[in-house]
Amino acid sequence: NAGVTQTPKFRVLKTGQSMTLLCAQDMNHEYMYWYRQDPGMGLRLIHYSVGEGTTAKGEVPDGYNVSRLKKQNFLLGLESAAPSQTSVYFCASSPWVEPSASSYNEQFFGPGTRLTVL
Amino acid sequence: DAKTTQPTSMDCAEGRAANLPCNHSTISGNEYVYWYRQIHSQGPQYIIHGLKNNETNEMASLIITEDRKSSTLILPHATLRDTAVYYCIVSLGDDKIIFGKGTRLHILP
After folding, report:
1. Which residues of A41-65 are buried (b: 16+ CB within 10 A; e: fewer)?
2. How far is B41 from chain A (nearest CA, A)?
3. Which of A1, A95, B52, B71 has the CA that lies 20 to 30 A from A62?
4. How far apart are the CA of B93 and the nearest CA of chain A, in angstroms?
5. pLDDT band at residue B102 using 50, 70 and 90 as cut-offs
6. Left if phi > 0, otherwise alpha if psi is -120 to 50, otherwise beta: which for A46?
7. Interface size between A and B, measured as CB pairs under 8 A
């Protein structure tokens, strides 16, 4: 299993350009998440999905859109990139398990995408 | 989700036990305590979680106080590879979790 993969690994955009980050998981997980991490900061949740066809806002959703058309993929879109969106973006997934299970809401993370907006 | 308070950084000698504290005084009765760590530039890695009882796995032990207002993550024999940022998180566990800034743990040779 590849686990959680992210495409691309690096990207440089100009202000106003658009792009889509792709997250894919092959573990048949129900939940998927997008985070951003800025220097010296912890991860902040952008959007998440509790199943195919569903999305929800996290802590910092403004300026981003997401889609979960297939269970294994979670797309993060930037319609008009801004320098404030320069960050490292992490995707994660987790399975649905009973709350008593030892792996309850264990999230598996991808390697990250480093995005620079000039 | 309840907020947590962790020291910004800690040092620990290699081979010794690393004890990382976390305060979560506003935790509610059905919220879990999770610990993750992030080694430089990598995605975070799940370590352990618990509700009321102490927990142990192959990576670490989690000690939760009886009133559940604080917890301690214990790495029994720290190695240089344990140098990382450690995040203590409280969450209902049903969907999203919120990361704070964590504790930067330095393992000293």
Report:
1. ebbbbbbbbbeeeebeebeebeebe
2. 8
3. A95
4. 6
5. very high
6. alpha
7. 62
Give A98 or A94, the one with higher predicted confidence: A94
Q: Which residues of chain A have a CB within 8 Å of the CB of B36?
A: 107
pLDDT digit string, tens, across residues A12-34: 999 999 999 999 999 999 999 99
The pLDDT assigned to A15 comes to 97
Query: How many percent of chain A have pLDDT more than 70?
Result: 96
Give the C-alpha separation, B6 to B102, whole Å.
6
Which residues of B lie inside 8 Å of A (Cβ-Cβ)?
32, 34, 36, 41-46, 49, 57, 85, 87, 91, 93-102
